[in-house]
Structure formats: structure tokens, C-alpha cells
Amino acid sequence: LPFIIATVIAFFMQKPAAFLSEKKHFKKGRIAALLSALIYLTVVLLAVFLLYKGTIFLMGFTEKFPEFLNKISDFLNQIQMKFSSIIPENYNTVLGEFWKNFVSSFSEKLGDFISKTIAFVAKNMPSFLFSSIIALVASCYIAKDYNILVNFVKELCGKARTENIKKIKEILFNSVFKLLKGYLILMLLTFLE
């Protein structure tokens, strides 16, 4: 997977690298490698920002959660007081027991979910970091030598297959990008309404 991600990023960095290479007269391979590294840096900074905001949200949620439960309990007590003449007396004890069981069960499940999530992240973090480093290095090298790799693959495939692959690529890119563009326009129109 890291090599597939690296190849996709290297592919998308070729046109910006060619543009910057013409304007600034640097080698296209070096600019493509630098742009690939900048993409990864941007993704890492975005991930750190989202992790920071998520942590702040969770801290605020855990601080306000008991207050929220107390408000619900007060609300249920108010309903119970208003309808105490209509509701049988044993129902009030059943409602109170239900609420206590619900709160304890929900708190237990929430704690279990948080601990499992933290364990999952801690368990998979080393392999994720290792794969990310491999993808970063691979994308820099693939972006730098993209034209050499493309020519090598063309030689391996032969002329007939290369032509078929070009046709499939054109059809795929035209169709997929038009579809994505249509969805983006629809989402934009829906959002603006």
C-alpha cells in the first residue's frame, strides 16, 4: 500500500513539477520530490491539528458529560413529579432503577470503547508510522524518477499494450473526473441551499 500511495502522489506531482521547472529552471525530478515531501508534511500537520482538536473536544465532552446526565435526571424527576398522580407508585421506582442501570451501563460501555480505541491506536501506531515513512521516501524517489519508471513499464508491456493502457487511462480519467466534478457541483449546490 505505501508504494501505491507513493505512485499516486508522484503521478499527481508531475504537472505542477513541470510547470515550476519551466518557470524557475530547476530540475523537474527534484521539484517533484520536494512537492511530494510537502504533500506529506501538509497531511501530517493536518493530522496533528485534527488530533489536537479531537483531544480538546473529548476533554470538554468528558467534563460536561456528568452535568448532562444530571440534567436528564432532573428532567425525568420533573416529569415524574408532574405525572405522579397518574403514574402508579411502583412505576416511579422502576423508572429510577432503569435510569440508574442505563447510566451505569452507558458509562461502562463508553469507558470500554475509549480504552479499546486507545489500545487499537497504540497497537497500530508503529506499523502506521513505518508505512508512512516508506511511502514518503518511495514517493520522493518515484516522483524524481517518474519518467524513467514510466518508460521502463512501457518497455515491459510492449507497444500494443501500452496503447491500450493509454486508451483505458483516458477513458477512466475522463469518466471519473467528470463524475467527481458532477458530485462536487451537486454537493456545492446542496450546501449553498
Please characterize this protein's 3D structure.
This protein is an all-alpha fold and 193 residues long. The chain has helices at 2-12, 14-24, 28-82, 89-144, 146-157, 159-192. Helix 1 packs across helix 4, helix 2 (14-24) crosses helix 3 and helix 3 runs antiparallel to helix 4 (89-144). The longest helix has 56 residues, at 89-144. The two termini are 39 Å apart. 9% of the residues are buried.
List the helices and strands and how they pair.
Blueprint: H1 2-12, H2 14-24, H3 28-82, H4 89-144, H5 146-157, H6 159-192
Helix pairs in contact: 1-4, 2-3, 3-4
Kindly report the oligomeric state of this protein.
single chain
Residue share in helix: over 70%
Largest sheet, in brief, is: none
Element order: H for helix, E for strand? HHHHHH
Provide the descriptors you would attach to this structure in a database record.
elongated, 6 helices, 0% strand, 93% helix, 193 residues, mainly alpha
Summarize this entry quickly:
By secondary structure, this protein is an all-alpha fold.
